[in-house]
Amino acid sequence: MSSTTFMSPEAALEHWQGHRRLTRRVIEAFPEDQLFSFSVGGMRSFGEMCNELLAMAVPMTEGTVSEAWGSYTPGKATSKSALLAAWDADTAKLSALWPKIPAARFADTVTAFDAYTGKLHDLFLYVIDNEIHHRGQGYVYLRALGVEPPPFYERG
Amino acid sequence: MSSTTFMSPEAALEHWQGHRRLTRRVIEAFPEDQLFSFSVGGMRSFGEMCNELLAMAVPMTEGTVSEAWGSYTPGKATSKSALLAAWDADTAKLSALWPKIPAARFADTVTAFDAYTGKLHDLFLYVIDNEIHHRGQGYVYLRALGVEPPPFYERG
């Protein structure tokens, strides 16, 4: 391994998939009738936030692999089962797509979705961090609903 | 650069410091009288969460450099000015400490704080992700207080 490595692409994918497993448990923890309706402070529902997350993870990865960027298309789930099905489908797609990205590209500057310019690793971290950010908001919604959220440290 | 690199240690630090700049703006955005008192759903105040963040970032980095782990000691700030001062001091310490970590160590398995075992890069990501997670909760608190949070995408 190079002495200039913080982590390998394989480790980055495993880290991301650990977050996706946790986010899936947060979706599951929501009462069905609150997932697309409950919010605090005029914010979006957690279900709507997850539809945003779906618009970012696989599309970012597909765009990186193909270098053809589609337009921003949020997920269309309106039920817990549809959201979980879309989530699981994208988890599998992500694992299939990720190894197609040549590692040497992660430090390249690219323009994702024909709009967001940055180093490729920073663009991917943005997608992961946005998931963590909104999932943290989902934790507050669950607490406000009297539901114990899944442990943050469990990623398996 | 090695073909097995997702990102370099320098990029990881810059990524983290970008998050710390955003978290600082979230602290600043809180009304002074709500920072250590307001919460939703029986959770901790955002100020208390930030005292936890202070107990993790520099102590994790100092422990990595020295390989001597102190006990968990949350920050003791009880006012916005004290919290911002502690935050700024640790931002500077982090930048000074980080280059002392030999890059080859990030893939090593270590036990941080004599309690948490994992690859070093995952342990650091845990600290960063915990900051993002709680800051996302701070965004909900701000919205519930009628305060517009700083833009998530601004890290400069």
The CATH topology name of chain A reads Four Helix Bundle (Hemerythrin (Met), subunit A)
What is the radius of gyration of chain A computed over CA atoms, rounded to a whole number of angstroms? 16 Å
Poorly predicted parts of chain A: none
**Biggest β-sheet strands, sense, barrel of chain A:** 2 strands, antiparallel
What oligomeric assembly is this protein in?
homodimer
Q: Which CATH architecture of chain A? A: Up-down Bundle
Compile the SSE list and pairings.
Two copies of one chain form a homodimer.
Chain A: H1 9-29, H2 32-35, H3 46-66, H4 80-97, E1 109-112, E2 116-119, H5 120-144
Antiparallel strand pairs in A: 1-2
Helix pairs in contact in A: 1-4, 1-5, 3-4, 3-5
Care to give the gist of this entry?
The structure is a homodimer of 156-residue chains. Chain A is mainly α. Chain A contains five helices and two strands; from the N terminus they run ααααββα.
Describe it for me?
2 copies of one chain form a homodimer. With 156 residues, the first copy, chain A, is mainly α. Chain A has a single domain, classed as dinb family like domain (Four Helix Bundle (Hemerythrin (Met), subunit A), Up-down Bundle). Chain A contains 5 helices and 2 strands; from the N terminus they run H-H-H-H-E-E-H. Chain A has helices at 9-29, 32-35, 46-66, 80-97, 120-144; strands at 109-112, 116-119. Chain A has a two-stranded antiparallel sheet with strand order 1-2. In chain A, helix 1 packs antiparallel against helix 4, helix 1 (9-29) packs parallel to helix 5 and helix 3 (46-66) packs antiparallel against helix 5 (120-144). The radius of gyration of chain A is 16 Å and the shape is globular.
